[in-house]
Design goal:
Helix content: 25-40%
Strand order of the largest sheet: 1-2-3-4-5
Number of helices: 3
Largest sheet: 5 strands, antiparallel
Distance between the termini: 124 Å
Radius of gyration: 29 Å
């Protein structure tokens, strides 16, 4: 008497295996897409954080400099006179220093003059393709354009802002104010 066997045939097993592999391939593709998207989001967040820090540092130095704002003839450098020494040259005496912002390669760098002959150049922001400074109508303001480097097919993006030296602006306003 033949026994009736229960179970799947070879064809049914092959079809189930193919369907399972298709589902697995789809899930893997979804995982890779999400992973790449998350990596890109983290990279953009880090870049935005660095850009925010850099622009805030630049704005703070411009606002609080005690001396003149000097823009190079080609607009590629900004020199600030009378910047707090303690912020960039701790332990190297007292008083104010001269600070120069410029672009080197794809980085915005700061060069504080702490001691003659000593290179203290520091990178502030990386991933930029342009740093342009235009002196304002008055001697106490500048318009700055930072151009972010293009990446992954996205075009380079300029970020333009105006910074004003508070002390010089107040002094200028006081000089222009009518006497009572």
């Amino acid at each position: 008497m033949p026994r009736h066997q229960a179970g799947f045939s070879l064809v049914e097993m092959m079809i189930a295996t193919v369907i399972g592999l298709l589902v697995l391939i789809g899930a893997t593709q979804l995982y890779l897409t999400i992973s790449r998207s998350q990596d890109r989001s983290e990279m953009l967040a880090e870049r935005q954080q660095a850009l925010t820090f850099g622009t805030e540092s630049l704005m703070r130095d411009i606002r609080t400099a005690r001396g003149a704002l000097e823009v190079s003839d080609d607009g590629s450098e900004l020199t600030l006179n009378g910047v707090r020494r303690s912020a960039y040259c701790p332990g190297n005496g007292t008083g104010d220093i001269t600070l120069t912002y410029s672009r080197e390669g794809d980085e915005l760098v700061i060069d504080p003059v702490c001691l003659e002959g000593l290179d203290n150049t520091m990178s502030l922001i990386s991933g930029i393709s342009g740093f342009d400074v235009i002196s304002g109508e008055d001697s106490h303001s500048v318009e700055i354009t930072l151009t972010l480097s293009a990446d992954d097919g996205a075009p380079a993006q300029p970020l333009t802002f105006v910074a004003v030296n508070r002390q010089q602006a107040m002094q200028s306003a006081m000089e222009k104010a009518p006497e009572s």
